Amino acid sequence: MDMKKWLAEQIAAPRKKALPILSFPCITLMDITVRELIEDSDLQARGMKMVSEQIDSAGAVSMMDLSVEADAFGSTIRVFDDEVPTVVGSIVSSEEDVEKLAVPAVGAGRTGKYIEAIRKACDLITDRPVLAGVIGPFSLAGRLMDVSEAMVNCIEKPDMVHATMRKATDFVVEYIKAYKAVGANGVVMAEPLTGLLSPRLAAKFSAPYVREINEAVQSDDFIVIYHNCGNNTIKMIDSILSTGSDAYHFGNAIDMAEMMTHIPADTIAMGNIDPSSQFRNGTPESIYEDTQRVMSACCPNYPNFVISSGCDIPAMSPWENINAFFKAVDDYYTAQGL
Hints:
The protein is 50% helix and 12% strand. By secondary structure, the protein is an alpha/beta fold. The strands form 2 sheets. Strands 1-4-5-6-7-8-9 form a 7-stranded parallel sheet, with helices on both faces. The protein has a two-stranded antiparallel sheet with strand order 2-3. The chain is globular and about 60 Å long.
């Protein structure tokens, strides 16, 4: 698939399909647990297929499990039945730890299962792009160092952070290349921890490494969608755009209409219905209203805007809410005569 053409077609389309980060809620369709899902590539591929049959989205997005890469490096992972896994503790607390830290081979930990899941999903889903999920380099480094320590280390131990970033970046490049090799049309790269940095630190510790990754993997048939759900994204938008990502995805901590004023007209930006208060804990009525609100604020003036969730939709989100989101999208365009 020519993904550059696909991006241009999304901008040109008067009536656009939504592209939420929607994968883990497949567990309620399949009557399984998150614990079972993350260990089985067949279940992941079938779950993506079932979601694609349930909703008319612009693309199929794989499990956004931001513990996978840290798991491959040897971090301790806490697994749940109804929530995404999390990283516990740290494995890098000194420069000596960084020196000893081995860059794992792609396939280590659960990465092999996730790559195999995308290979299988590409065979099952042929009517829309298939997008894999990966963590961004600073967000991975933060999980290796501990999130709080990573923020402090950017100021107190910058050389150690850069050394960790080097290894994180090297792994992410090869991991994305593996997804590309099995047929993925692109990746959603989640770099949420960067959203907690100051604009100056984000430009120093995240943007150059993301740009390096992009330059290594992007092509006409493979795109990178950059995701950051931090509340500082508008302030750091210059460095975010400097990454040269193909499209951008933002969380609900910011005003999406204000963000759109900073996005080039030929570049897609997506967002930003709250995954927690709306998809997971809202009602069909509240998410319908909020979706219409965001679309009314963004769609009339920004053809490069695509409605989406603000982040990964929680596993136990009611399908009544998810369906209400898609109904709101359809009703908005119908009311516009589109």
